[in-house]
From TrEMBL:
Pfam families: adh_short (PF00106). Belongs to the short-chain dehydrogenases/reductases (SDR) family. Its EC number is 1.1.1.127. This is 2-dehydro-3-deoxy-D-gluconate 5-dehydrogenase KduD.
């Protein structure tokens, strides 16, 4: 299992206070990594779970949609950890509204966090990884990196953008030892999807279309995150890995 061993690695995970980010942060810690969790909301539960595994955990509170804060977040993460080997750009929001009524502020809020912050964090952490000549970056994409979705045009645009920058940066950085890939989760039970889960008709019609016959749980992302963060994926660059119970195969 050495291929998947993350002992001694330091991972910065955004949006790790709950949902998918929490599960991936804890998953990396189970594989041996120390974690810097960055979130706009309290992450005590995540930090406690990681420390109970005997790993180091730090929390940085920050609203990552504020571009001017990003440089400080990365400096603080480097100060706390001494280095960043793994970056998971997971923090993301969704605003549901038909395209014709989609507010400009909603569009800008979604883009600021889901796309701008991801690119700038890739740049800031990537420059440090480039100096060292190694690093693993995992961006969290979506089925809406491929499909159009309904009533979420800003979100769809941001997640198509995630697939694009993941490939663009892989082309530039793969030769310098930086692995940048993405995970595209299918329908997972978190706060992000709570309104769909509450709509019984929509929930059932989605479940029926999933070949695996069930929605994903946050823990379903632990394995894929460990894989893309570890040397098990050392010949993977610019890939968007669907973890979707077969949704995209249908
Ligand atoms: P969630 O709402 O449960 O968690 C989002 C996390 O992001 C939280 O930790 C929250 O504190 C943090 N966050 C929100 N706004 C922030 C900000 N401005 N600055 C810093 N942190 C902020 O959602 P989730 O379902 O766990 O989503 C995580 C990622 O997975 C998102 O990028 C989302 O688009 C993506 N995704 C989710 C699903 C799904 O079905 N749940 C499917 C595909 C992709």
């Amino acid at each position: 299992m050495q291929l998947f061993d993350l002992t001694g690695k330091r991972a910065l995970v955004t949006g790790a206070s709950g949902g998918l980010g929490q599960a991936m942060a804890v998953g990396l810690a189970e594989a041996g990594a120390d974690i810097i969790a960055v979130s706009s909301s309290e992450s005590r539960e995540t930090v406690d779970q990681i420390r109970s595994l005997g790993r180091e955990a730090h929390f940085i509170a920050a609203d990552l949609s504020k571009e001017e804060l990003l440089e400080g977040v990365v400096s603080e993460a480097l100060r706390l950890s001494g280095g960043i080997d793994i970056l998971i750009n997971n923090a993301g929001i969704i605003r549901r509204m038909p395209a014709a009524d989609h507010k400009r502020q909603d569009w800008h809020d979604v883009m600021a966090l889901n796309l701008d912050a991801v690119f700038f964090l890739c740049q800031l952490v990537g420059s440090h990884m480039l100096q060292r000549g190694n690093g693993k970056i995992i961006n969290i994409a979506s089925m809406l990196s491929y499909q159009g979705g309904i009533n979420v045009p800003g979100y769809t645009a941001s997640k198509h953008g995630i697939a694009g920058i993941t490939k663009a940066l892989a082309n530039e950085w793969a030769g310098s030892g930086i692995h940048i890939n993405a995970i595209a989760p299918g329908y997972m039970t978190t706060n992000n999807t709570a309104p769909i889960i509450a709509d019984e008709k929509r929930y059932n019609s989605i479940t029926e279309r999933i070949p695996a016959g069930r929605w994903g749980k946050p823990d379903d992302l632990k394995g894929p995150a460990i894989f893309l963060a570890s040397s098990a994926s050392d010949y993977m660059n610019g890939h968007v890995l669907c973890v979707d119970g077969g949704w995209m195969a249908r």
